[in-house]
Write a structure and sequence with these properties.
By secondary structure, the protein is α/β, with parallel strands linked by helices. It is 47% helix and 10% strand. Strands 3-2-1-4-6-5-7 form a seven-stranded mixed beta sheet, sandwiched between helices.
Length: 505
């Protein structure tokens, strides 16, 4: 018998807060003698601390923006400004050198047991809104994944879709008994975070996996990810994301697809290197796995943010959990093919990433994550968010005073690390694919060098994205809303359903 769809809970049935919607799990949690749990917050205190910093984002953004512009202009006007920048660049360069010279762990995890009952139960979660073009392919893949059938379930949250997504899901439930569907009402709030918080009370998994509707999930993904949770300090695992249109060799005729593929290679490089120096790894939304007990301690997904993954990243680290990273196999996703879509997507990512520092600055200032993680986090906050904002007044002052920009030493380090990271990231992925994927080959070195240079030029758009985003949120109030990226999929994902907009004959 197919599983019936689950209607959206009535207000009386809904949990009062995200953390109330997460039940206790039988999956072994951290033992109390683990060093990673020292000084961790209890569940209630953690939630209170996390939500304390959410108000006043616009005011805080304005203060930071004024401080950046004011200090940058001041450095141009004082005689020792260049010496100060060189000192800052030296400290920044030392930290970057530590990261670049670190040797990441080399491993190919796999399940060490053949007893299905000893494996953790896994809930595969998908929040979908108007995803008729791609949802069928994803559901079929998830329902046939290489993991004992009795040890996992698939949940799709239909967030009041107005296209043919509901009909597609109804048809799929007839074929896949492990598929469960939660229908959200039109007045449901919280966006993707709200959808995930709503379904997590119904899901039974010890480990919760989150996928976007356009995800391309490898057949053996659970076989590779679940062993990483054997480490009691690991609260979450992020699988490397790959751009589906670029293929194994990460090449495409579309300029934006090539740029995104190289950008993902840089991200994988930075994730591995930061873990190697006991810094932080970050969640990327699609292909993220979270331990239920860790999510409970963090109070669930934050419904007051537009990037639930980046927000949860900081919460997990503040609660003294680690996030691991899996290079191979990757989870594929559709890259955006038009500059307008890219601009809106990157603005959302930038705002959500910046927002978390404004929200949790008190906990960061208290060194809740530990010295190593705090140093790593603040280094990347400086590189990703502060420097791009400072480049605008620095450039204007350089023109006014007919001199080179003061931040040249710092930006040179930043772009050099990005270019090196792209090259090494691309080569590392290619060699890993050759070992695990039949037919995969590495590009010639010269082609990889060209890819890295092109990717570095592509990444310059982030300077404009960050600087305009910081100005916008400091001036204009922001209404939280879930803005989805349009996915196109392929023609075979429609299941030959009749078009409800056309009259029947």
């Amino acid at each position: 018998m197919p599983n019936p769809s689950v209607p959206s809970p009535s207000p009386a049935d809904k949990p009062a807060s995200p953390e109330d919607s997460i039940t206790n799990s039988s999956f072994p949690a951290h033992s109390t003698d683990e060093s990673c749990l020292e000084d961790s917050l209890d569940d209630l205190d953690a939630t209170l601390e996390f939500y304390r910093g959410l108000p006043g984002r616009r005011r805080k953004a304005a203060v930071v923006l004024i401080a950046i512009w004011g200090s940058t202009v001041a450095l141009h006007l004082v005689s020792w400004g260049m010496w100060f920048v060189w000192g800052l660049a030296t400290l920044f360069g030392i930290q970057m050198a530590r990261m670049v010279l670190a040797v990441p762990r080399s491993r190919t995890p796999s399940l060490s047991t053949t007893d299905p009952e000893s494996l953790p139960f896994v809930s595969l979660l998908v929040a979908a809104k108007n995803e008729e073009a791609v949802i069928s392919s994803l559901v079929q893949t998830l329902c046939q994944i290489d993991y004992p059938t009795q040890r996992y379930e698939v949940w799709v949250v239909d967030d009041h879709s107005t296209d043919r997504t509901p009909q597609v899901l109804d048809r799929l439930q007839q074929d896949y008994p492990q598929l469960r569907v939660l229908r959200r009402s039109a007045d449901a709030t919280g966006g993707k975070s709200g959808a995930l918080n709503q379904v997590v009370s119904l899901a039974q998994g010890d480990v919760l996996a989150v996928f976007d509707a356009d995800a391309h999930v490898p057949h053996d993904l659970l076989q590779r990810v679940i062993p990483l949770f054997d480490n009691a300090c690991v609260g979450a695992v992020q699988v490397r994301k790959a751009i589906a249109q670029a293929g194994l060799r990460m090449r495409s005729s579309n300029l934006w697809i090539r740029g995104q593929a190289t950008e993902m290679a840089l991200d994988s490089y930075l994730q591995q290197q930061r873990i190697s120096i006991r810094g932080i790894s970050e969640l990327r939304g699609n292909g993220q796995f979270v331990r239920r007990t860790a999510l409970q301690q963090c109070g669930g997904w934050n419904e007051e943010t537009i990037t639930d993954d980046l927000d949860l990243t900081l919460r997990l680290h503040l609660a003294r959990w680690d996030i691991d990273f899996l290079l191979i196999p990757p989870v594929g996703e559709e890259g955006v093919t038009r500059v307008g879509n890219l601009w809106h997507q990157r603005n959302r990512w930038a705002e959500g990433g910046y927002q978390r520092y404004l929200d949790y600055w008190r906990l960061l200032a208290r060194n809740r994550m530990g010295t190593g993680k705090t140093l790593d986090m603040m280094t990347f906050f400086f590189m990703q968010y502060l420097v791009p904002q400072a480049m605008v007044p620095d450039f204007l002052m350089a023109i006014a005073r007919s001199r080179l920009p003061l931040l040249t030493p710092i930006t040179t380090i930043t772009f050099s690390v990005a270019c090196l990271g792209m090259y090494v990231g691309l080569r590392r992925i290619q060699y890993a694919q050759m070992k695990t994927m039949p037919g995969a080959i590495a590009n010639p070195r010269w082609r990889t060098v060209i890819q890295a240079i092109q990717g570095n030029l592509y990444m310059l758009h982030w300077v404009l994205v960050i600087s305009t985003m910081a100005l916008r949120i400091a001036i204009r109030p922001k209404r939280l809303k879930w803005v989805k990226t349009t996915h196109h999929g392929s023609d075979d994902s429609w299941l030959n359903l009749p078009d409800p907009l056309k009259p029947s004959k």
